[in-house]
Amino acid sequence: MAEIAVITTVRDRLEHLAAMRRGLAGQRLIRGPREIEHVVVRMGGADPWPSLPEGPPVVGVEMVLASGGVGPRLPLASARNAGAAATSADLLIFLDVDCIPCPELIERYRWMAQQAGGLLAGPVGYLPEAINGACVDPAELARLAVPHPARPVPDDGVLVPECRYELFWSLSFAIRRADFAALGGFCEDYVGYGGEDTDLAFTARRLGMPFSWVGGAWAWHQYHPIEDPPRSHLADIVENAQVFRRRWGIWPMKGWLRAFADEGLIEWDSTGDTLRLLTTAENAS
Fold first, then answer.
1. Domain shared by 15 and 152, yes or no
2. Structure pTM?
């Protein structure tokens, strides 16, 4: 039985998944690779199973999607929960498909999970477009990766407690199975993109569960084009923001909502309860 499970949700992005797998194969482990399994949750899209590079044993999970797996809507909350349910590992490491783990990521998360419970998040470094999925040389990736400017970067091996739970993100984090169960997993009222990770963090705060940054547990984020604001996820973000408001009494994702409002895509009262998607006719007027 694996002690640690790395859980990855995926739709398409097979080159990113292959680079992640090569990063997992290069982990510097104290007690050997047999203690690790890779839970890959497919949310429709291209079939990833025939082309997976060598790495930890794979547990494949297929999500049944009402839409047939087309369009931008991703069942991220339910897919992550399905990944957690597919393993009996004591430590769950959630790693987005566009992230390459540094060689020490698993050991750093494992060590810190033994010292502290709750949510454990490592720093993220963003790679330039010129780096393709075939390059997983750790020294080169570490040199080129640019840390996120709004997140702490602790020294290697240092655990830094965080009281700003709104900074939590789910692209790279670890949690003990018992703590994940105490949180109830990700709230599946969120369907599609946005809000589910902040909700998980706010649940942890309400329960008095700690949130900490793990120095040196780097995830290197592979380049892909992004929208800012993410207009292709507009409907999901509006719906999920409404769910978050009902559950927590405040608006999440305010930067995106403000940008959508400025573009005339939504009607939003930042101090009240109004948030609605405007029709095409209204947008054109």
1. yes
2. 0.93
Tell me whether the omega of the peptide bond preceding residue 229 falls within 30 degrees of 0, making it cis. Answer: yes
Section 147-169 average pLDDT = 95
Q: How many residues does the chain have?
A: 285
Tokens describing residue 7: 């859980």
Say yes or no: 13 and 150 in one domain: yes
Whole-Å CA distances, 60 to 19, 41, 85, 89, 229: 18, 6, 12, 15, 32
Structural domain range at position 170: 4-221
Single out the residue of 38, 53, 48 nearest to residue 87, CA to CA.
38
Torsion, Cα 84 39 194 48, to 10 degrees, reads -150
- List strands edge to edge, sheet with 91-95: 58-62, 36-42, 4-10, 91-95, 172-176, 119-121, 211-214, 159-161
164 shares a domain with 126: yes
45: exposed, middle or buried (Cβ count in 10 Å: 0-12, 13-18, 19+) = middle
- The C-alpha atoms of residue 152 and residue 76 are separated, in whole angstroms, by 25
| Nearest CA-CA partner of 276 in 264, 266, 262 | 266
Other Cβ atoms less than 10 A from the Cβ of 79: the count is 23
Nearest-CA neighbor of 56 among 80, 31, 39? 39
Grouping H, G, I as helix, E, B as strand and the rest as coil, residue 177 is helix
| pLDDT tens string 100-125 | 999 999 999 999 999 999 999 999 99
Domain end point (choices 201, 221, 241) = 221
Q: Indicate whether 226 belongs to any domain.
A: no
Return the CATH number at 78.
3.90.550.10
89-93, 146-150, 203-207, 244-248: which has the minimum mean pLDDT?
146-150
Whole-number CA gyration radius for the chain: 19
